[in-house]
Amino acid sequence: MHRRKFIQVTVAAGLASAVAPSILRSQGVWPSRPVKIIVPFAAGGATDLVARPWAEWLTKAFNQQFVIENRGGASGMIGAEAAAKSTPDGYTFFFSSNTATVTLPLLRKLSYDANSFLPVARMGDSVSGFVVHPSPGVKTFPEMIDYAKKNPGKLAFGSSGAGTLPHLRYEMLKLKTEVDILHVPYRGGADTLNDLLAGNIQLMNEGSSLPHVKAGKIYLLNVNHFERFAEFPDVPTLTELGIKDADVPAWFSLYAPGGTPKEIVETLNAKALEIAKAAETKARLQTVACVPVAQTIAEMQAYWDQDKKRTADLVKAANIKFE
What we know:
Blueprint: H1 3-26, E1 35-39, H2 46-62, E2 66-70, H3 77-84, E3 92-97, H4 98-107, E4 118-126, E5 131-132, H5 141-150, E6 156-159, H6 165-177, E7 182-185, H7 189-197, E8 203-204, H8 210-214, E9 219-220, E10 250-256, H9 262-276, H10 279-286, E11 290-291, H11 297-318
Parallel strand pairs: 1-2, 1-3, 6-7
Antiparallel strand pairs: 3-10, 4-10, 4-11, 5-8, 5-9
């Protein structure tokens, strides 16, 4: 090979190798194929009900399918592990409440590093409360507490798994009111709701139950939020009921596996900000007891760090421990 030709080929190869990672990351257009969003709970639960409209909006925004994959079990750890260990190529994301990224790391030995996730977008705050089946004959929060104290161990509370936010709310209820209520963990909120409606358990605390409150099948006793919810303006907050500092906030976010290209994460966040501010988003999420939140990546990271500290303080105060 002539010396000039050799130099040209060598320089070209060097340039190609320098820009290759960038080309591989962006691939010119992203997404160029369907994108998977792992939800660590069963279909029909609170997390799933919030994730699905977001998948629809992102599909429309990017003109490419965003597909929900439910991987329930172990209080969300199975799905979280699958997401954390997936290829960070921009085609697998993780949609979860703060259970998998805040609560579980404080309570369990995990098979994944929760801090390895990259924050992409905070997609909504859940508004829920304790709901009760008609069988105990109570319709208000004070009546439920009175019943529980007079009938220790007769009420059963169902959660979407040990260490989940509903479970933490149950523990805080016990801490603040000193009631004796049985905890029954399930694989997800959908299974919990089915057993509640069947009368096999009497209490739960997830947004997926609220449509059944409207239908008159169960009663909403309180609102777990800093203010009343527009859908149920007559239902008081825990603070209004005289139980201060008892709320355990639930917020839903999209995360990426560590190593996912920054450009892709920023592109998704920018689009999520637009969607979160749309009137249609607020109206749709309200039907599943959720309020949209528009945050930049930096703002979401700051809120995530704040929630880790707040939840750690709550776990310590309630003396919650797991083997």
